[in-house]
Structures are given as structure tokens and as C-alpha cells.
Amino acid sequence: MFKALVIEKDEGGYRAAVKDVEDSALPAGDVTVDVAYSTVNYKDGLAITGKAPVVRKFPLHAGIDFAGTVSASDDARFKPGDTVLLNGFGVGETHSGGLAQKARVKADWLLPLPAGLTPRQAMAIGTAGYTAMLCVMALDRHGVVPGSGDVLVTGANGGVGTVAITLLAKMGHRVVASTGRLNETDFLKGLGAAEVISREELSAPGKPLGKERWVGVVDSVGSHTLANALAGTRYGGAVAACGLAQGMDLPGSVAPFILRGVTLYGIDSVMAPMALRQAAWQRLAAELDLDKLASLTQEVTLMGALQAGQEILAGRVRGRLVVNVNA
Q: Could you give the percent of the chain with pLDDT greater than 70?
């Protein structure tokens, strides 16, 4: 028996609860992992609350990522005792995931834990931090370098935003943080933001083109915020879009693309190729300020993840939430 945050849906409705489950409830897979830590990401909040159809198979153990120790393996790449991490590949959506004390997954989905990171630190980064690095790497490939202009980070108090600010500032970028919680200005500047603006500057319907304000953007918000971020991007700049906290729509114009040559990069963390994942995690292990990571991380229990799912959707979570599934 082990504990898991189980999502169920039947004639009685949609339910999320921490339960004791049998090992036989684990899905098919090559590798069984004793989970040490998981996280509560925005997508986990949607899954736990049922606010969006994230979970598409029932019953299912929630959690789109985890880190832990291999306990059994039918794949030569992994052996008992190896420390591993996983994010994406439909885990926590169509395949039982990491908000559980045990997980069984395909070996192809696993990464060895990068040197320099503990399982807890890996999940303090989690899918949100990994996604932030994918955004940063997209801007890097585009040629957005320190000194070339400001970089905007929207949803600055969230998991993607806080890690993106930390990474970009350490690289030498001047970061402009957009947030709905201006009372967190000191916290965001402590992470490295040079300037903090109200999300209201970007969240309402705007003009097709605005003043050229930044050369790069990391956006986890979508909708009008993304449209306005594009409208304010400098000639030849780039926007990396990875989220939809405000909405899935993009009520903007082609003007930034055809008049300023702006590039919009779509960032998919779920099915990203393994080589890209490995590069992102290696960079996170080498470049992320782990002291700042600790300062933006809170720890909750598996039972606490239920409430945390609601809090993250309400915008009341700052930074990252690590779940100690064995506490």
C-alpha cells in the first residue's frame, strides 16, 4: 500500500482525495520509482480542482512531475538505487503521476537526476522552472543577449516567472517583471528584477502596436497580456509563450510580426525532445542560483497539495510549491 492523491470522476462527480492504494493500482511501465518529492504546478491546480479537463483517464494519481529513487527496473538504462526525475509525457494527465509515494512509468520518460541537484531541489525547479529554462533557451537561440534590451517576464510571481527572473538576471539581462501583486515588488527585485510593473498595463485590450519597450519576453499568461507583450516588443525581438493563465485566446494583430519582424516561439514542455530536456536540466543545475531557488520555495505535504491546488489557481502562491509525498 502507498498514499496517492487520486482523481476520480463518475456518476458522483469529480473528486480529488489522498487515499491509500494498492501497488496493483500502478499503471504499466518499465521502471518503478519511490517518489521523494513532487510539486504543485498551475496544471496540477487545474487537475486537482477539475477547473479544466487536464485529467483524461480515471481514476488517476495526480502530479505532472516527480523526483525519486528507482526501486525496480526492466530497462538496462536504470537500476534500483538510481535517482531520477520526470516531467511531462502525459504523466498526471493520462498516466498516473508524481503526487504519490510510488510511480511506474516508461523508461523513455525518465532523466537521471543532474549532478548538483537533490531530488527536493529538482522539484523546487519542477515543470515550471524547466519550462522557464526552455523559454530562456528560445530567447538565447534568437540572439537575445544581455545588453541588447529589457526582457519582460509576465506572471512574475508564479513558478515560471520567478525562475525566469532568477535565470535571466543572473545571465546579466535587465528584467522587467509584470505582476498583479505590486506588494511583492521587493521580493521580485530580490530575485533580480530591475523594474516591476502592474499587470494592468498589459491585461486589457490594447493597440496593434505599442511603444517598443523590450527585446524579449517570457510569457506564461496568454490572452491580452501576450498580445500587448507582442505589441511592445522591439524590432527583431522575440517572445516565448508557455502559458494561459489569463486565457487561451490571442486577441492581437499581425502588426508586430510583419512591421517589426517579431518572432513568437511556442514553448511545449510536455512532449519536448529528450535532447532538449537534458540540455535544459543541465543548464538549470549549472546556472540557477540555488539559494534564490530556496527563497522562492515552499514545502507542503501530500494532503496539503489539495488546498495548494486551489491557492495556485487563485493567484495566492508565490514562487514554487514542493510536495514532500512522504510527510
A: 100
